Amino acid sequence: MTDTILVASRKGLLTLDAWSGALEDIAFRADPVSAVLDDPRDGCRYAALKLGHFGVKLHRRDPDGAWKEVAVPVLPKGDAEDAPSLEMIWTMETGGADQPGTLWAGTLPAALFRSDDRGESWQIVESLWDLPERPKWFGGGYDHAGIHSLLVDPRDPDRLTIGISCGGIWRSADAGRSWRVAGKGLVADYMPPEQKEDPNIQDPHRLHASAADPDVVWCQHHNGIFRSADGGDSFERLHAPVSSFGFAVVADPNDPGTAWFAPAEKDERRIPVEQRFIVNRARQGGKAWDSFDEGLPQPPAFDLVYRHAMDISHDGSLIAMGSTTGSLWLGEEGGSRWRQLSANLPPIAQVAFGKV
Amino acid sequence: MADIHFTPQLERFLACPPATVEGETVAGVLHRLFDDRPRLKSYILDDQDRLRRHVAVFVNGRPLKDRIRLSDKVGPRDRIDVLQALSGG
User: Fold this and answer.
1) Domain count, chain B
2) Does residue B89 sit within a domain?
3) DSSP code of A154?
4) DSSP output for A288-300
5) According to DSSP H, which parts of A123-227 are helical?
6) Domain range holding B80?
């Protein structure tokens, strides 16, 4: 429900009242939570843990309120002594409305997993893991590439679009049986000149499709902001005021021309520009922009919003946003006014409006 | 065969009573134990069946030599301790 905000934090899964910021519940107290997912199809909630000593774990809360540890994705056995092991569940999504119990998980290292039994078992999507292009992917901030964005087309849940840092944008039209690289028009300034437009090494920090038009995909990329009108196949580069660098983006569910961003200075200085924290809003597909600071911290602020730490309510009336320095805000009136709900939370990986 | 004991920190997540288990190597002992306690495996070993990076295993007080294959020999009345490394924040 929109009345609650879930915060996946370094020190547990927090549930807060969206209006007062009152802390209603702490699950997995003091344990790092990397991702949370509510499934409105059956009322279940999922929390992915990244335990410092004991690895990645996944828990499901059934509608009766009890948490239960379920299976966790496992990477295939490799021959090399340094063959990878799962480091993090970075994002989870529900399958289609007509696929109850089907879940997708994007992980670090970059693999896609599917469950058809509410997380009781997971199967790796081998067609993606076996791509000949995969060895060219590389980590952006981590040792390995990772999948952080999963778009399931609400018109046809077999149509998937994934975002990989740094492995570009890949699309499947057959529920993951085959893949093609997308993201034409993305530009990677961190690569040698002849490879800047190689779609296979792009670093899309976050993808978000508009519920108003799922073919409109907004991309906060390592080197700027891009917008696609064809489902992610091709992108147009946009230029935001103050800074086009950042991690998070949310698209307006009512208007495919509108999206919000939380800019930072640049890739090698991941702090607000002049320590003044703002939110940018694109309108008219990025032809017009607004910068908002009402209710947001004034200098000196060092808040950084990670890629999953911004969410918009189903009706588009509210935006929740959390920072790595433990601040949580609620945005109203199109993100033009913000209210601080807390300044004392742990570092925030994800915020999400409750849906169950 | 060896006696195996676990850090109490694991008790936060699942029951870990000490056990006496057949096996000629640490890997043999652990995998036999995991047959009875399947949830425990992912807490101790990674996806490649190596010892997790921040888990420490001692055999009779000596650190495990082979953290990849866990091939260190164990005999009757040997003691295996599964502990957590000091890390985190």
Assistant:
1) 1
2) no
3) T
4) EEEEE-TTSPPSS
5) 126-129
6) 2-84
Are residues A183 and A169 in contact, defined by beta-carbon separation less than 8 angstroms? yes
If one counts every other C-beta atom within 10 angstroms of the C-beta of residue A117, the result is 12
The answer as to whether B59 is a domain residue is yes
Inter-chain contacts counted by CB atoms under 8 A, chains A and B: 49
Q: Is the pLDDT at A317 greater than 60, yes or no?
A: yes
- Whether the CB-CB separation of A49 and A56 falls below 8 Å is answered with yes
**N-to-C CA span, chain B:** 36
Q: What is the DSSP letter of A144?
A: S
Q: What is the DSSP string of A24-41?
A: EEEESTTS-EEEEEEETT
Nearest CB neighbour to B52, from listed A53, A69, A72: A53
pLDDT tens for each residue of A213-243? 999 999 999 999 999 999 999 999 999 999 9
Measure A127 CA to nearest chain B CA, in Å: 20
Q: With bands split at pLDDT 50, 70 and 90, how would you rate the model's confidence at A306?
A: very high
Q: What is the ipTM of this complex?
A: 0.94
Judge whether B21 lies within some domain: yes
The answer to whether the Cβ–Cβ distance between A85 and B48 falls below 8 Å is yes
> What's the Cα-to-Cα distance from A189 to each of A146, A193, A224, A240, A261, rounded to whole Å?
20, 8, 10, 17, 20
CATH assignment of the domain containing B79: 3.10.20.30
